[in-house]
Amino acid sequence: MKIMETTGAKHIDIEAIIAIARKAGDAIMEIYAQDFEVEYKEDNSPLTQADKKANEIIMDGLNGLTIVFPILSEEGRHIPYEERKGWEYFWMVDPLDGTKEFIKKNGDFTVNIALIHKSVPIVGVVYAPVLNEMYWAKQGDGAFKNGDRLPLQYNQHPEKVLRVVASKSHLNTETQEYIDNLAKVTDSMEFISKGSSLKLCMVAQGCADIYPRLSPTMEWDTAAADAIVREAGKMTVDIQNNTPLLYNKENLLNPWFVVLS
Predict the structure, then answer these.
(1) pLDDT band for position 51 (50/70/90)?
(2) Which of 9, 45, 55, 245 satisfies CB 3.0 to 4.6 Å to 139 for a cystine?
(3) 145 to 108, 155, 194, 202: CA distances (angstroms)
(4) What is the pTM of this model?
(5) Which domains does the chain have, with CATH numbers?
């Protein structure tokens, strides 16, 4: 039975969302093991059969749940703001985050599924199928990686060693300048290069202290991992306004942000 009603994260069966993400990841891996064609969208971003297949699996899975909400997916149809601005709850999906990493076959790509409530991510599942890493969070229940509660690590002395994670494919001049300025507030710095939403998950886990992103991302790139970050006691902050990221804006482009404790 399909139900559209006000609910909270507590009514979401997180295991069902994890199973959907894993099924999508399995389909991605089947294509990953083969030769595959790459298409390019209007914005010149790459698209593969894996993106399309994972999106199909996730859409079918979410629409098969007892409680059904609208879905906003990177690979779904364009939904005008006039239609979605009234949504109290909706799923935000990136079926294959890190398509460039998928094409390079370096393993740093993820399946991202988030539930948004009034601009706030309250459920998030991030699955990295090559790494066999499953992250999830539900508002009020905490954040987890493969069943272990996050964070797993703590840096008691960032003034001595600061661990910075940044994009493998999008390390632009502005981000590099931000990182260079961080070097002034610590004795030494460790730099970690990573792809996809795994960068946010690394801060949530505690193996990185900060992730600056001063280049374009879309809401579906961050939503699921942002839920995990928040439940791990960290925050994803709009650099200009010093406020948490908001979702379901008229323009789905994220502002520049930083993820930190």
Answers:
(1) very high
(2) 9
(3) 16, 18, 17, 10
(4) 0.94
(5) 9-149 (3.30.540.10), 161-260 (3.40.190.80)
